[in-house]
Design brief:
single chain; alpha/beta; Rossmann fold; 2 domains; 8-stranded mixed beta sheet; 13 helices; globular; EC 1.4.1.1; nucleotide binding; Ala_DH/PNT_CS2
Length: 362
């Protein structure tokens, strides 16, 4: 198979979808690998590293798309890439179609095969290609939240963990999945008072058993969320419905109950966000203020720590990429039901129900 890895061109996206180690393994198995020049620089990999692994370097993104049967990326194609995608070409990347009608329409029009990292399933129903970036994003949410709580950054001016004689910040985490667990662990480790909310009692029981005493688990409901808003310092949105838009757990009206200088970090923003006032931002311009509340809504948070993120992501994606390369996408998805769940758009049709429902195509 001919596999192409273009340089990511989304704002401040420094990750790369294929490492020199993965390149070497593919080349050893007889596959051709094209890498766009400087694609790995942001993650610490030089062009020489890829050349030594057997890749062929190409100057432009246009060449990579034109020469490759399969495109492996980190983030969804952006508008300037839409015309480069060819009929029958396999794209293996994060798509998050439910939150972007223009992207979905462009991929339908291209008649490409779009296999989304975020909906590939493991036999136990977990999302193995979403987990590593969710772990990174959950931990980063607390780092960024702590930063923007500082007065020079527009925050209320509170130290997350407090000091002796001064109470710590209050952190509410909405969602007890991978992102929520990691966020709660980080916030608790820094000494914050943490409230972790979810709608699964079984999950809350598990989280209550494994998390430290400064984390309280609370059943998630509008009433319970509202009770915390007037005293919360940092809210982390960590809600996920695989492949579908996230529900709005905090509305614009509810936001007005929060204090000026409090902070929201919506990790679910690439799925539409679970806080109504959240819209995607970039690492270049990461925040904005609504009703006195600082919003951090960067849609590719792990891109800020590309060394960690690239290795964590490719550890998870490469076994699936290898299946696709060795068998072709049709046979690979026929033999692996979990990989087949990653098929979202195939030859002009939406084939993943939650995406169709989110876009009104069901």
């Amino acid at each position: 198979m001919i596999i192409g890895c273009p340089k990511e061109i989304k704002n401040n996206e420094n990750r790369v979808a294929l490492t020199p180690g993965g390149t070497l393994e593919l080349v050893r198995r007889g596959h051709t690998v094209y890498i766009q020049k400087t694609a790995g620089m942001g993650s610490g990999y030089s062009d020489e590293d890829y050349i030594d692994a057997g890749a062929t370097m190409l100057d432009t993104i246009e060449e990579v798309y034109a020469k490759s049967e399969t495109i492996v990326k980190v983030k969804e194609p952006i508008e300037v890439e839409y015309p480069l995608v060819r009929e029958g070409q396999l794209l293996f990347t994060y798509f998050h179609f439910a939150s972007s009608v223009p992207l979905t329409k462009a991929m339908i029009a291209s008649k490409a095969i779009c296999l989304a990292y975020e909906t590939v399933e493991a036999p136990n129903g977990s999302l193995p290609l979403l987990v590593p970036m969710s772990e990174v994003a959950g931990r980063m949410a607390i780092q960024q939240g702590a930063r923007y709580l500082e007065k020079p950054a527009g925050g209320i001016g509170i130290l997350l963990g407090g000091v002796p004689g001064v109470k710590p910040a209050k952190v509410v985490v909405l969602g007890g999945g991978v992102v929520g667990l990691q966020a709660a662990k980080m916030a608790a480790g820094l000494g914050a008072q943490v409230i972790l909310m979810d709608i699964s009692l079984d999950r809350l029981r598990y989280l209550a058993d494994i998390l430290p005493a400064n984390v309280r688990t609370v059943y998630s409901s509008e009433y319970n969320i509202r009770k915390e808003l007037s005293t919360v310092d940092l809210i982390v949105g960590a809600v996920l419905i695989p492949g579908a838009k996230a529900p709005h757990l905090i509305t614009r009206q509810m936001l007005s109950e929060m204090r000026d200088g409090s902070v929201v970090v919506d990790v679910a923003v690439d799925q539409g966000g679970c806080i109504e006032t959240c819209v995607p931002t970039t690492h270049e311009n990461p925040t904005y203020v609504v009703d006195g509340v600082v919003h951090y809504c960067v849609a590719n948070m792990p891109g800020a720590v590309p060394y960690t993120s690239t290795i964590a992501l490719t550890n998870a994606t490469f076994p699936y990429l290898l299946q696709l390369a060795e068998k072709g996408w049709e046979r690979a998805t026929a033999e692996n039901a979990g990989l087949a769940k990653g098929l979202n758009v195939v030859r002009g049709e939406i084939v993943y129900a939650p995406v169709a429902e989110a876009l009104g195509e069901a």
